[in-house]
Amino acid sequence: MSLVELIARADARGLAGSGLACLDRCVPLLDGDDEVLRPLWATLADDAGDGPGWARGLAQVRDRLAGPDAEGEDEAVLLARRMLAAAPDERSGAAIRAWADACSVASLRVHRLLDPATDAATEAADVRGEEDHTQGRAQGRGQGRGQDRAEGLSPLVVAELRRQVTVLEVLAGHGPAGLRRALEVSTEGRRVLRAVVSRRARGRG
To answer: CA 115 to CA 92: how far, in whole Å?
Structure first.
């Protein structure tokens, strides 16, 4: 199943987890530490998606990650800030689905922008359309034009696609029990992006 299909079929917990995982992997761009989103992850174990914990956690995270004025910040940082700013106060309904979808596209865009081997002008939404071909190729099943296009994606982007798919799959298949695996996947991706951001900062310095 493709990434777009997984998002379309996900329940409220899966959507919140997917969006949160995308944001979590981009935290290094906001100078956040590895624990800053843990309170939000903890709320996903609660079936009461409309409870105050999610909104209260969002307010705390926004306060901790508040950055300078957007003027002068590059696109990758702005995309990460917008992910956090757009998070809905209620973990249910159409708003959480729209947020998860927007975070998916934004996170892919961030990974493209940070990878010098890719053409960042290509829209992340198009990359998501090729995700099923990428999975097929990894299993020896990719064929034709889809396989050729997947081969043109950088390892950084392909890895992000796979992480997004994995988070949605484990939350769909295991519910609250899948949160630990989803968090592990997100942590791995955050470490990768933190290393990329660090290298970029050294290169600019």
So the answer is: 34
